[in-house]
Amino acid sequence: MSKPLLELENFSVCYGPVEAVHQVALTVGEGEIVTVIGPNGAGKSTLLNAIMGLLGSSGTLRLGGQPMARPSVEAMVDAGVGLVPEKRELFGEMSVEDNLLLGGFARWRRGQRDQKERMAEVFKLFPRMQERRAQMASTLSGGERQMLAIGRALMARPRLLMLDEPSLGLAPLIVREVLNIVASLRDMGVSVLLVEQNARAALNVADRGYVLEMGEVALTGAAGELMHDRRVIETYLGVGGNKAPLRRLRRLPLRGTTLLPGGPRARRPVVACSAAIAEACCAAFRVSIKIAGCACPEWFSDGFHIEIKVQGAQAVIKLMNIRLRYIRTICRFSGIHGDFP
């Protein structure tokens, strides 16, 4: 590993009396891409927000060997840390160019007038942003918004860029494009701390990885080693890494799948199904799926509500029938191969 840029020791984060992140030890080297994977609710986003100074924390945080005691957001930005949040948090009624200029405001405030040169570098990395520089951010596609969010963070010339779920809600082709750009940041000397639900995609671009479970580091190692770790394959790589889950699909109680009213948010239909089906769908969709317990009939003892985040009417239509036929179709569409009944 290269010289450490970010070091965490016994790093903990609490929400009131509840400890969300417990004594995490993590290191990101200079010019290195490190990914943090894990299930929903493991504390991944909380970890990034605490590093950025958005949440209180305890333990040791060092940046470039210098301790950062109770850092503020301003102090972390000035120290060369950038965050691309999960929801991108763009200014929708402002143009692409104005959003980028805001990303360089901290440097402008310090008297560094290199915004035009920096914007040219961002446009070189994201040519599509140059084409849409006068367009309102709210009119961009999901992939373009993610590119703009990354470009805005790069305007501050960060030494460390933290990305929270950059693939969320994006089509597989756009995910690959975005993550290829993330991989190219290594050549620019930017270190990357990547939180990602799509474990396979994240490990493909990362140098090292951490598996976070229940707020604690459960596994760590080189990305290639984690890709072949049996526990990671079965738990996080899903049907794409092992044919055993495909064989289990044959025995799923598919008769227990029921569409529930989606309410006013037509783009987020709610589906009730067994935990086994939920797990299979998570692997098939390769997107973030919010799972919460719900009351179900007696025959439906392990039921869940699944809120599937989708974009576009076509995706909504596909979600109207989660049966084995649908799981088979979506798996094949996503390039997941195996023996289906």
What's the short story on this structure?
This is ABC transporter ATP-binding protein. The protein is built from 15 helices and 14 strands.
Number of domains: 2
Q: Classify the oligomer.
A: single chain
Percentage of residues in DSSP E strands:
15-25%
CATH superfamily of the largest domain: P-loop containing nucleotide triphosphate hydrolases
Helix content: 25-40%
Write the H/E string, N to C.
Answer: EEEHEEHEHHHHHEHEHEEHHHEEHEEHH
| CATH fold group of the largest domain | Rossmann fold
Annotation field: number of helices: 15
Number of strands: 14
Q: Please give the radius of gyration in angstroms.
A: 21 Å
Low-confidence stretches: 239-278, 284-341
By secondary-structure content and strand pairing, the structural class works out as: alpha/beta
Distance between the termini: 46 Å
CATH-level-2 architecture of the largest domain: 3-Layer(aba) Sandwich
How would you state the average pLDDT, rounded? 73
Shape: globular
Task: Please give the CATH class of the largest domain.
Answer: Alpha Beta
Outline the structure in words.
- By secondary structure, the protein is of the alpha/beta class.
- It has two domains: 4-238, P-loop containing nucleotide triphosphate hydrolases (Rossmann fold), CATH 3.40.50; 251-333.
- The protein has 15 helices and 14 strands.
- A six-stranded mixed β-sheet has the order 6-7-8-3-9-10, with helices on both faces. It has a four-stranded antiparallel β-sheet with strand order 2-1-4-5, covered by helices on one side. The protein has a four-stranded antiparallel β-sheet with strand order 11-12-14-13.
- A hairpin with a 2-residue loop joins β1 (4-15) and β2 (18-29).
- α3 (96-103) packs parallel to α7 (142-154).
- Mean pLDDT is 73; it is low at 239-278 and 284-341.
- Residues 6-239 form the ABC transporter domain.
- It comes from Ottowia beijingensis.
- One of its GO terms (molecular function) is branched-chain amino acid transmembrane transporter activity.
- Keywords: Amino-acid transport, ATP-binding, Cell membrane, Membrane, Nucleotide-binding, Transport.
- Belongs to the ABC transporter superfamily.
